[in-house]
Amino acid sequence: MPFHVEGLVAIVVFYLAILAVGIWAAWKTKNTGSEGDRSEAIIVGGRDIGLLVGGFTMTATWVGGGYINGTAEAVYVPGYGLAWAQAPIGYSLSLVLGGLFFAKPMRSKGYVTMLDPFQQIYGKRMGGLLFIPALMGEMFWAAAIFSALGATISVIIDININISVIVSALIATMYTLVGGLYSVAYTDVVQLFCIFLGLWISVPFAMSHPAVTDIGFTAVHQVHQAPWLGSINSLDIYTWLDNFLLLTLGGIPWQAYFQRVLSSSSATYAQVLSFLAAFGCLVMALPAVLIGAIGASTAWNQTEYGVPDPMTKKEADMILPIVLQYLCPVYISFFGLGAVSAAVMSSADSSILSASSMFARNIYQLSFRQNASDREIVWVMRITVFLFGASATAMALLASSVYGLWYLSSDLVYIIIFPQLLCVLFIKGTNTYGAIAGYLFGLVLRITGGEPYLYLQPLIYYPGCYPDENNIYIQRFPFKTLAMLTSFFTNIIVSYIAKYLFESGTLPPKLDFLDAVVARYSREHMDKATLVKSDNIVLNELAPVNPRHSLTLSSTFTNKEAFNYVDSSPELSNTEDN
After folding, report:
1. Nearest C-alpha neighbor of 538 from the set 39, 108, 164
2. Residue-range domain boundaries for the chain
3. Which of 123-132, 179-188, 454-463, 471-480 is the least confident region?
4. PROSITE patterns, from UniProt (predicted)?
5. 333 secondary structure, DSSP code
């Protein structure tokens, strides 16, 4: 394939435009807020992100290269089809559930990162443990979308895949490094517009190509391959449900999502942003679904692509750029390439910023350097933005499937962080002992279930498992959801057992080595004033750090404060302390 100078020029112009917007947003950040809260302005944008920009940036966080390329791939692959393209519905429902139940309590309590409530209730060491799966999730996510970009550019303009990934990563990292959330948010507006326009312009041209059969007919009839609507076999129903729950519930506890929630100007705005983004995710998935359907309806031997087809060549994960390249005019394919590049950077910058925000605040500042200056925290964030961006770039070429790496990135978040988030926000009285036990049980059950993408054989063979072509056993049983539920209930049970043993005197106070039950004022737990510095946040809205001695079963197991987003009354606080 010849080298396309026009395509390279189009990409360079697009990247320069994005970089210019990012630098402008960084300049705007410097004129926002006081000198004392520069780090918080970088992380949560001064908490003044409005509905328009907030809606765009939250949508663009999910609508990335993995989302666009992965959805098209799932629709195209014979035997799977639209029935298995779960991401659009799954992540949209995730945003709806996040808006209904999680956005308001997190924003109203004035946290800065997703890990703040964990460190407040469970202590800094537990916060450090939860940082590990959160970081891995962000890195897998960023690697998946960089991989999608490399595949797209290498197909359309025939440039080395390593160069395309590295240059794209440098651009995203550069404006994230200098501008933080403001740069990410404002570039997201431009990028989302490019995605929408670029893909929708490409669809009519691809659909009208002579080699493409009517997609309405191929949806239910086998022509070049199985119908692209797809089907779910009875044996695969539990696998489908397991993956769907992973996307829906596992899509909530991400720093990239809560960063937008916590940057909104009010708790109500945080909810509205979630609902707007849910609608945006569905709308942005439509062109990707159509492109996947077009790929499944094409006689590839009648195109310049030739034979065999992309599935036989094991290029199904590149079906979107292949459709743009071989079924659209040259100038249209270059415009579509800009759209996919935008999709990649709109999610990559979010993941990189999320990982660096959690490290700088929850690991470096709150765990090791509580007296660190704001300038020091800003520099730590800049260094980690560069390091995490480089790490995600290095992993970008290791995935055999964009969709597979996408699922993998949500596994640890779904199994470990989601049940912990439920407990810390809605279950009253859980403590560090329960959190550690739940963490370990969930992790062990997930690892022993195996992972075909890492060629990891399972140690526990659940009912219905079978070997694939590489003799790696695939689980049909919903073991990921089982691991999540086990982690959730283990946290509750162990927490209340530990609480009973210490409060009843069965175990002496000196054995409470984590200071999770007996100690009323533990150095291990974060002080309210340490977590929240903004003047507009009322400190007594924060969940109490001290353990409570509940009198009734219902009050023991239900954190009513999570459902009542108002200041706690002094009378209630006095009753609980007594």
Report:
1. 108
2. 5-370, 427-529
3. 179-188
4. NA_SOLUT_SYMP_3
5. H
